[in-house]
Amino acid sequence: MSDNNPFGGQFGSNAGQYATTVQYGGTDAERAKAALGQAPADLIKDTTTAGFAADVVQESRRQPVLVDFWAPWCGPCKQLTPLLEKAVKAAAGAVKLVKMNIDEHPSIAGQLGVQSIPAVIAFKDGQPVDGFMGAVPESQIGEFIKKIGGRTGGPPQVAEALAAAAEARGAGDIQTAADIYDAVLEQAPETIEAIAGLGELLFEAGDAEGAEAILARAPEAKKDAPALAALRTKMALAAQAASLGNPAEFERRLAANPDDHQARFDLAMIQNARGERTLAADNLLAIVKADRTWNDDGAKAQLLKFFEAWGMTDEATLAARRKLSSLLFS
Predict the structure, then answer these.
(1) Where does the UniProt annotation place the signal sequence (predicted)?
(2) Which of 42, 148, 234, 270 has a Cα-to-Cα distance from 140 of 20 to 30 A?
(3) 109-141 tens-digit pLDDT
């Protein structure tokens, strides 16, 4: 778990109230690492002439290893190495990266015919199989890792970790879920499910500002992904409901006049914010049934926003959608 875990202060002193154990093995940090395979520290290391056989040749019999030949005086090396490390972490176990300073350990580079640096040579099954020289673009590094290791991101380990986080949330172990989401984002920072999951946990904990910050980490091309859009809708609905006032007032108005659609609509908004999804949906459905013209079919439009915020497979969504279909098409 990184030191900048957004949940460090939020839940750190309250861990006792999240005591439910998820059977995923080990401590919170170990559970997250187990779900993701190897930790970043295991994926990247420096080696020496004496350690080359074990770190590269033998290790490449288990999985592909990239060897980065570099030197402290090499400007292009300083450009390439951070990109290499980022790509290897994002691949989350597809390959390992071993770095060798040729000033301190020149013999291996000489034996492999390395004539200029930076140079990257890939080893598989104990043998060099491919490589490149120079500070190539990040996209080219990703393609090289894909060719050597078979994938560049989104490995099965990430899917397993996300499943473990969902299991932890379902069991009430919020801290573990937060730890796993954060661990996923360390290795695969563009994972939308982890961004949405961590953002939702922060929002549910009352930290709307923190949730916004997490949402801002989504890559531009994926900012409108359904999971992120659903969280934004949920946050907007909660903000709208918070401005409506006391639900008892709307209940009093409805008792006096069941056709007070605005009171019913506002009550539904508050009920949704309180997690009373079925009641909220039923109130909006009652308006749809009574008067489709009210507020330009505003009750139906709001119900569709609820569906987006709840998720298409949520039980309340499915039940309300069936009722809505019955009203519209019967």
Answers:
(1) none
(2) 42
(3) 888 878 889 999 999 888 888 888 888 888 888
Answer yes or no: are the C-beta atoms of 138 and 87 closer than 8 Å: yes
The sheet carrying 127-133 orders its strands as: 44-46, 96-101, 65-70, 119-124, 127-133
**Coil, helix or strand at residue 198:** helix
Residue 101 parent element (H or E): strand 96-101
Helices (H), 116-207: 138-149, 156-170, 174-187, 192-204
* Alpha carbons 55 and 206: distance in angstroms, whole number: 47
Residue 313's domain is classified under what CATH number? Answer: 1.25.40.10
Q: Is 82 labeled as catalytic in the residue annotation?
A: no
Q: Find out whether 312 and 322 touch, Cβ atoms under 8 Å.
A: no
Residue 52 lies in a domain: yes
Full domain range(s) for residue 197? 155-235
> What's this model's pTM, rounded to 2 decimal places?
0.44
CA 99 to chain centroid: 29
Last residue of a domain, one of 187, 205, 235: 235
Do both 112 and 144 map to the same domain?
yes
Q: Which of 77, 91, 148, 218 is catalytic?
A: 77
Which CATH number do you get for residue 45? Answer: 3.40.30.10
Residue 325, token pair as written in the block: 């279909």
Rounded to the nearest 5°, which phi and psi values hold at 272?
A: -65, -45
| More reliable by pLDDT, 40 or 96 | 96
Class of residue 146 by CB neighbours under 10 A (exposed 0-12, middle 13-18, buried 19+): middle
